[in-house]
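> tool_call: predict_assembly(chains=two)
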Amino acid sequence: MARFTGKKAKETPGLNMGSMSDIIFMLLFFFMVITTMRESTLFVKITPPQGTEVSKLEKKSLVSYINIGAPIPQYQAKYGTEPIIQLNDQIAEVSDIAQFVELERAARPEPDRPFLTMAIKADQTAKMGMISDIKQELRGAGAFKIFYNARKGVADQK
Amino acid sequence: MAKRKTPGLNTSSMADISFLLLTFFLLTSSINTDMGIARRLPPPLPPNTEIPDVRERNIFVVKINSKDRILFNGEVGDVSLLKDRAKEFLGNPKDDPNLPEKEMVYIEGFKSEYPVSKGVISLQNDRGTSYDMYFRVQNELAAAINEMRNELSNAKFNKGYADITEKQRDAIDQAIPIAISEAEPTKIGGNK
């Protein structure tokens, strides 16, 4: 029995931290791959309308956003409270859309250009007058693929 | 002289560094996928194109006014009825003479002819219509088309529209096209 007596209480062995960094690296790569950087800060507040038939927007690199909504409080003194258009980092007019389409097209590699989708991300309170004007501009500029951004869900009855 | 042993690198801070990077990517990433409805705009018409004559039975007019009220073919309606009306119109299951004509079209994916409806849903809105209402109408029309496609897919391939191959989907899309035409908006609610 001498084996069991006369020995000090066993110490808990330290955890081996060697593989810790591997695990963390794995997580890191996962997030690096799925991440998409936020390209621009929005000056407008957008609550998209809700729909049941929505589908996912494919190929994010081939999408340009047209944001429409009322300015956020900091910018209300400058731009008022009516819905305005934001293209990338700037507040724009309907007449700027054609140029915007050209610039966005030029930024894509040649073979991808016909597949450029313009996503209309509009607030639900926006009026169709403005959106129709934008659609006319897009038609004129030859950008026929559009996408109406929405949230999934059942719209509440009015 | 014996070679000196290289001392092992202390890698305990490695985990800290990668944690730091990990937190950075965690905070900056946004996994939100954009959801919505994809549509195609018609190309602009060349000037002095003749507007094709479409028979009245082939058009289903949906009008939305500046107060977000809806009119289907001249009668007051509600968004909740739109889906069934659109399905009835596009499907015309009983070959009603007041509903759209059909044209036999050979579809590669079915290896046979299929009666494709000549019906067009004409959507007209006012400049004062809210985007919310417009989107709801688009959503209901999309729901009608999706349901019809799903039914046809079940009948032809014994599978839902979501589960069939791309070729089969092309065939279904050809049999039930998205026939929505948008007219120029009216200006009754002010020129905003």
